[in-house]
Each structure stands twice: as structure tokens, then as C-alpha cells.
Amino acid sequence: CRVETSNVQFVFVDLGSISSSLLPTSKKSTLTETIVLQGRMEATVDMTTDRAGVEISKNDYKLDSERLEIYTAKGANLYHPVQLLEPIQFSLHCLQRVDKNDGGDSTDVKFACLAPVYISISMQNVALASAIATSLSEAFFEDSVAEVEVDEFCSLSEAETSKIELLNSALEQVGDIDDLNHNRSDHPNDISAHDGNPSKQTKQMLKLRATLPSATITLINDFQGMDLALFKLTTTHCVFGGEVDFPVLSDSESPLFGCNVNTSVLAEYFDSTTFKWENFLVKPWEVTLNCSRSEQSRFPSDRLLTTFDIESHQCHVSFSEHFLVSVGAASRMWSVYSGATRQATELVASTTKDDSNKQRLSRSMAAHAARSLITTLPYALENHSGLNASYSIGEEHLQLPSNSTRFFQFDLFPESGSGGMRNYGQDVKKPRAVTVFVGDTEICIADIDREVGNRHAFFIL
């Protein structure tokens, strides 16, 4: 069996933003916030049976992805896409074998990523994903059943009491007959634990293999009024292997396992004063982890032995106080958002106790409102020169009157995905340039990110 799909989209919508746009008191419609998962898949399933064609002896599953990506967007037409996961290619292979002769079943799972992985996650993305996950969990799992008030205890009548006594005596007679038949054991053909030939219990073995050539994760703080990167973690040559052995399918036996992980880690932090990436790990950090749970070989014992073995090369760490300030600011902003969300949901829960559906919808709207309070401010230009001015961003030319402030933003950098990619520091391929016109004077700012860190700059008109 083979199934091949074209470009398939799974759109996860925040119910709070949808409900806010449908309110009758809303003067303008609000674009819904969504997380989109899309890509092309190809799945293959092969089943092998015995000669009689009755029992399955082997199952072979394969899943290949060509362009699997994740991005955020707004509105039904998915405006302003921002990439979270760049398109990746991976292959997943699962092979199940059923052996009736020796009673052993094995499952081999292999995963291989065929291209580097680039992930970019911001704090607003985490807040949106948390809101969507909460809405999904509340939609699929109903709330606990409300307690029902029980009337006062009423004594049974004489007729009801006599019926219960007759039923109890009848059950006791049936139990005596079953005990008598059990003691006779006149069935030598039955297979049980008393005939000295117990049924053979099967065992299962699970093997896992995973290979990842390179993966880069960038953490972004967009709760602070500006869109600033925090941290970037890169792993290369990541190899994982594991094996889990279930000796007997019973509750008394514990599974045996063993796994090993080998990778090389490189980390960088973003310095907001210089708008550059600085090395957090001066050299790549190579780590090897081995863990196992098996029977003891040195000493005779029935207890299992669990071991963890970590082999690490030297770890050279370097950071400045600006990194600690950035992490502290991000932590405080997240605490502000969490507190606002908690207060909003508690207020909604106290006002909508009777209707559970209305309570779920109101909680989603409250979380969306709390998330909207903390927004990312774009770039801004203020004119206090007393003269009318103008500015241009790319091909767009806009006016900047005296004693006014104009907000603007730059388009994201197009990469291989459907949305734009957020790049910072040395990863920026094209600097963000702004040109300001004051009279006949033209002021060119080649890279506005670098100018943000400077206290002042002057130009002669």
C-alpha cells in the first residue's frame, strides 16, 4: 500500500483571536493568529503473512517527507507568514517482526534527517502555542463531572430487604458449586499453571536509531518592545541508538534498556549592545552519553543495575554581563505575561461558572487579550528638528513632519520556506538601511541595528 500527498496544510487557530473578531462590540476585525504545519508526504506499508495467509509475520512501514515546515500566519488567507521551522527532509522506517517459534517479537525504528534543521522560536510563539494547546486539550477532554447532590439516606422496606437476602443466598450457592468443580480438576487437556506445562509468554524488543546531521535553534525575546535574539544552540553529528527489551509480558518483570547519544554542541549569545553574535562556547563541546539497565554480572543478585556514563570533553564558556541582563529581562517579561494570563482566566472562571462551553471560550479570549497587551514595537523615527522631513525604506517614501513620530518595520528575509526568516547579527545578509531627507540634505543610515546601540550621532545639514 502506497500513499502520496501533495502540499497538505494543518492550520491550528487560536480560538481567543477568532472570538474577539466576532464580538458585536468590536469596531474592526482582528486577524486570527494561526500556526501552520504543511509539507508533502509519502507513506508505504508492506505486510507479509505466513504460507497459509492467516497470520502476519512482518510489517514494514516507511514515511518520507520532502518539504515539512512550520510557520505562523494571520487571517484566513495566512498573511504575514513568519517561519518557525525551515523546510526539512526526513525518512522514518519502522519494521515489525513476529516470530511464533521462539516467542520473540522485535520492532526496529530508524529516523534520519537528510538536511540541516533550522528552528526559530520566540516568546510570543511559545505563548501562542500554549494557548492553542490549551484550547485543544479542553476541546477533546471534557471537564470532570460535577458533583450531584445526594438525598438523605432512606431505610429499605421489608420487601426490598427480603429480595436482597434471597439474592445473597443464591450467589453463595453458586460459589460453592464453582469451588467444588475447581477442586476436582477433571480436565487434563486444559493448559493451566497446575499441569506443569505453563503457556509460553512472548517477549518484545524495541530498537531505535536516529541520525541528525545538524540542528540550529534560535531563541528570540519579542516581549521587550524590540525583536532581539537571545541564544542560539547548534548541534552537529548527532547520533542516537537505543534498545528496550521486555523479557516477559507481565507486571512483575521490569524492562531492560540501553542507549547511547553522541553529539557536538556549539552555543552563541546575542550581544544587544553590538548587535552581534558572540561565542558562549569558545570551542565545540563533544558529549557522549551511555545509559543502561541490565542484570548484574559481577555479583549474583536478582536486582537490576542502572548505570549512567557521561564522557565529556573540555567545555570552554565565555559570556558578558549583557547576556545576563537579556536573560533576566526575558524572564521578567514572561512573568508579566503569565501573571496577566492567570488573572484573566481566574476572573473569567469566577463569572462563568454555569456554562462550561462559554467558560472555555472566555478563557481563550482572556489569554488572547493578555497576550495582546505585550506586543513587539517596530522601529520608529522622531522629528524634533523643527523642519519637515521624509524617509524611505527600500522603494517606499514616507513623510515625517516636524514634532511627529512614525513607526515602521522591515520585511523579513526570504529563505526556502513559505514565510520570512528572522536573522540577526552576522546572519543578516542585507543590512536594514533607512534614508532620511531633511530639506536638500540626505542622511543615509546603512545599518539601523548598529545605530540603535549608539548613544548619539550627528550630521551637518
Give a written overview of the molecule.
The protein is of the alpha+beta class and 461 residues long. The chain is 23% helix and 42% strand. Strand 6 (79-99) and strand 7 (104-113) form a beta hairpin. Helix 1 (15-22) packs across helix 5 (356-373) and helix 4 packs antiparallel against helix 5. The longest helix has 31 residues, at 321-351. It is extended, with a radius of gyration of 32 Å.
Write the layout of secondary structure elements.
Layout (H helix, E strand, L loop, with lengths): L1 E3 L3 E6 L1 H8 L10 E7 L1 E9 L6 E19 L4 E21 L4 E10 L3 E6 H18 L17 H27 L18 E19 L6 E19 L9 E16 L4 E4 L5 E11 L8 E9 L8 H31 L4 H18 L5 E5 L5 E5 L2 E5 L3 E5 L4 E2 L5 E2 L12 E5 L2 E5 L2 H5 L9
Parallel strand pairs: 7-9, 8-9
Antiparallel strand pairs: 1-4, 2-3, 3-5, 4-5, 5-6, 6-7, 9-10, 10-11, 11-12, 11-13, 13-14, 15-18, 16-17, 16-21, 19-20, 21-22
Helix pairs in contact: 1-5, 2-5, 4-5
Q: What is the H/E order?
A: EEHEEEEEEHHEEEEEEHHEEEEEEEEH
Tally of helical runs: 6
Largest sheet: 14 strands, mixed
* Structural category: alpha+beta
Low-confidence stretches: 20-29, 143-153, 180-201
| Overall strand count | 22
